[in-house]
Input
Amino acid sequence: MSDITSKPLPGQERFVAPVDKTPLQSVDNVDESAPATSMWADAWRTLRKNPMFIISGIVIIFILIVALFPGLFTKQNPNYCNLDNSLAGSQAGHPFGFDLQGCDVYSRVIYGARTSISVGVLTTLIVVAVGTLVGAIAGFFGGWIDAVLSRIVDIFLAIPMLLGAIVVLQMFRTSSSIWKVVLVLALFGWVSTARIARGAVLSSKNLEFNTASTALGSTPMRNLFRHILPNSVAPIIVIGTTSLGSYIVSEATLSFLGIGLPSSVVSWGGDISKAQSVLRTDPMVLFYPSLALAITVLAFIMMGDAVKDALDPKSRTA
Amino acid sequence: MTNEKQPEETLEEKINDMQREFGPLLEVKDLAVDFTTDEGKPIHAVRDSSFSVYPGQWVAIVGESGSGKSTSAMACLGLLPGTGHIVGGSIKLEGKEISHYTQKQFVSVRGSKMGLVPQDPMSNLNPVWRIGTQVKEAFVANHMDVSHEKRSNLSKALADADIQIKSEGDETFLGSKELPELMEAAGQALIKAGVEGDKYEKRMEYFHNEWVPGSETRWRVADDLIKSGVKDDDAWYIAKKYVVGSTTTDRAAGLLDEAGLPDAAVRARQYPHEFSGGMRQRALIAMGLACRPELLIADEPTSALDVTVQKRILDHLQDLTNSLGTAVLFITHDLGLAAERAQHIVVMYKGQVVESGPSLEVLQNPQHPYTKRLVAAAPSLSSQRIISYEEKGEDASAIMEHKVNEESLEKGDVIIDVEHLTKEFKLPRRREMFKAVDDVSFKIRRGTTLAIVGESGSGKSTVANMVLRLLDPTAGKVLYNGKDIASFKKDSLLEFRHHVQPVFQNPYGSLDPMYSIYRSIEEPLRIHKIGDKESRLKRVKELLDLVELPESVMQRYPNELSGGQRQRIAIARAMALNPDVIVCDEAVSALDVLVQDQILHLLNDLQTQQGLTYLFITHDLAVVRQIADDVVVMQHGKLVEHGTTDEVFMHPKKQYTKDLLDAIPGGKLELGLNLDHKA
Amino acid sequence: MGKYLLRRILQMIPVVLGTTLLVYALVFALPGDPVKAMFGDKPVNEAVAAQIRAEYNLDKPFIVQYLLFLKNALSLDFGNTFAGQPVIDEISRAFPVTLKLALMAFCFEAIFGCVFGAIAGLKKGKWYDTVILIVSLLLISVPTFVTGFVGQYFLGVKAHIFPVTAGSDPGFFDLLMPAMVLGSVSMAYIIRLARSEISSNISQDYVRTARAKGMSNTAVTFRHVLRNSMIPVVTYLGQDLGALMGGAMITEQIFNIHGIGYLTYQSILKGEANLVVSVVTLLTLVFVICNLLVDMLYAALDPRIRYA
Output
């Protein structure tokens, strides 16, 4: 055929680029100049550049300080109330004024942080521990264990969290510890983490490096702890961070309904509930705890978003 | 054109003249494409690239991944991904500059002037729409007249010059509504013409197969009738009466049929997930050609498919585009394939065109060092070269990377003995078991390489996993040094794992992304409790040296390395325990040609130095030729053929083996070593 | 399709049984005596308590109690309230109100969520994308009762656009603001979901192939990007309908709407365990049925599921 088309068509003549224009590189050489980075270092680099992460990080640190050392921010006792001050406006030492009972709104907002943060953090810790354990067992062993555990998860998921929590909490209306709220939230919260953990374990279980390790002589249990779990951590961290905010909201909601924390505990939800009756006359009493609650939740959700972006496997080249 | 060897040479000349007369269909000059990083820095993906495509011509762009071959092609369609944008040069389509086109303007040329057959058949069809609907979209978008065939300018010109001028109506398609009546009329016409009995049945069956609604035109129906003995006037009368145009549904099915999809009308109503990879690719070809574009851009259209399917589809595509007069810009990483299919080759490297010219010339006489390297490394070409040498009775060992170790083949002791191996799987919601491996037996002698070749679903990887004792066989056994590996428990199993090591296919999956390279290579030493911290560090350094990687790699993580580098890490890990046997499951399949060549060299060197035994699983017969002593060919779980590499390549006994050999791209090429035969 | 449906319904049965059992167990088997709770602060009259125990089968073994409850529930007999009213009457009075509220909230979140989500997803990086994102983030962070109060104060008390409370027999307009409040969080989630789905679908290979066919941008967007992004959004919406009915409690409380949530809350305050368990069981059933409908819808939208 080339005999016939002996003369090439215009623009299709033989062309060879000068060698120095595209110098030949050795096949598949390693770029030794770039710094070595692990997945975590990579994620951290992405996070550091994300303004959402920086803002939410600063806010969360501030809230944590407030929760740990409320005395640094106010000298007032949040439980000291004087009916003479009922609904009084702001004055020296009482920037946010007083509520219906004559308690200092500012100090109650400050002390409320401790409650919200403790409930959020404790619930998240329990939920992540239980959820990861159950999810990992279901995903790793599979078979009937998985079938049974998955059905249990389905059953819990079918009960709307708020309704379930209300049903349980009404039985313990007399108890005055924050643990009842934490345990009830955890009781209905662990399932979503379990589902995520199961999915993560299942997908990393099927990755080839596990087969490779087995062929090298590793046991299934060693694989679980050395390979599968470390590779499932990222999605669990993401759901943990994001749901922390939602547990704070749930606590506030339950307290708002009057069946969460007892009124003796200073909490934003409880204060908002109490301020309900004066909404028309003095909305600011309701405004301050609401704002504190919203900022806290926003910070955790933003943090969750940022962490998710940084740990998203799709954004990584691996 | 390669397939048209037998017809009169004048056609070639005529086409050539016409191409000269028309000028280039697509002309790319000094094209430059940049991508922008997150930091706003430009990355030069393509620089100073020039190539042109003439009407009816196949032009191939060859290059490794990241060479800018796809980017150049996508720039022509205005479909650059992400932040890609053209920063210089010109792209002319039929003489009109299109590089500055807006997306709206591109819509007017896409589909109708330029079609695309994309690479990955799995992700390029929308899973929620029926196949037929997705074909229809193409002609709806371009306001195609679905009841008439549209000819390319080239074939129009050829037809004008050659045959009688056909009236518009002759290109009318047959519709499914009229088909039964047409068949009946045709039957009567045959009887009237005196065609009877056996011959009648045969002709009718022929009509039944050929007359596909939405694809067969009026003049071809008439032509078929005339050839069957019906008188001209009658034939044209019938054709005019019953061939009166097709609906969109007919046309979609007709296009799928032309692309080689069986039962097209039924298939058109199915969804992509009900299709195999090959069928999806055919559907994509139908879409690319739906509006009869002058130019078809085929971006690695078959590289995700099995070799035999690949060959069938490419043969079909070539016939189809030749008959339609469509030009094809064919993008591939395989030099052999490019040279086999295209008249003109463009070699790209690091975003630049390094060499271009007529296929055979480039192949036989590569000038640029990169092209030379590519020609030397391409397995399809080198296996071709070996065969040519041996056919001429010359010593091929000089150009072979692997020397067949005949002594070990004959006298060496058997290290792996596979006896009547069978594996059945339970399919979900099916009663009967699926036999993935069916009674397979072979022996591997120490110090040799046995390759298992087969296409997807042949059960070759299942065999590998059973030899590694990652899967338990349903029946039969695997003996390692004469001992049944199923009998190994705890300590003896650990001992077995010590000696038999794997290298897996996926260089992205077989290393834990959370482990540094040091930890990955050290892992087997840790598991087998060998040495202390210091000696392990020393060993890891040795191993990195063995696979020719710098020590600094140790602190790195898998995501920072290329596929080939990861595969070398995987080999280093497998070598850590000084094994006797390494099972390579498609270990080089995912790699670029040059990298693949490098890894094969490494494996060969290791074998010579350390007397390793390999079980090499691959779908690529060309690679087998370079590395194996013994070959087992598998199909549908069964062993088809077993022999030494020479026997299998020179004297294949089974048709399937012949098909596989035939499917090696570049198989029909006359290569550089035959230069003396040329005038 | 039929087989798939049947399988889903069969899978639903253990979930329904398990869920009702769990709710029942939480109310009647946990430490804490529901009968005592009925008396509140008053001294417990043992005779009356025993009578109540007998009436609610609380003197029988737990599993028998549950089975009797289940048997009665199947005939829609949930027993009586303390006042002697059949529970089913109370429920059927409150249920339509909540259903109306939930459906309005559903329409609100579906329409605005999809529209804003699509705008944000298709025009990623534009200023209005950023605005939509920030607003949705705020809506997610602010608890419903705060949104409720803010709406009530500004739109009701200050601006007099909407009625401040809805009352016992609310009309469409009375429920408009409560519905928006109720649907606001879900709307924000839908915006985020739709946005991320669209922006990931837009870079799919089949979208490029569609463009290569010569389809216009509008056609590609509707037929390939939006059509495929709809699947998870519709799934979310369906599941949310059940959740909205359960979550209406807060909104009904704030706006004084006499629906299911209000009823539940009042009965919790009064210690009407029987009513609570009935309502929660019913809502859980609604939730499970919604999930089943979602599955069917999912199968209709995604052929891969249909034929699996």
Summary: The first helix of chain B runs from residue 9 to 22. Chain B has three domains: 11-126+294-374, 174-244, 389-663. Chain B touches chain A through 83 residues (CB under 8 Å). The two ends of chain B are 20 Å apart (CA to CA).
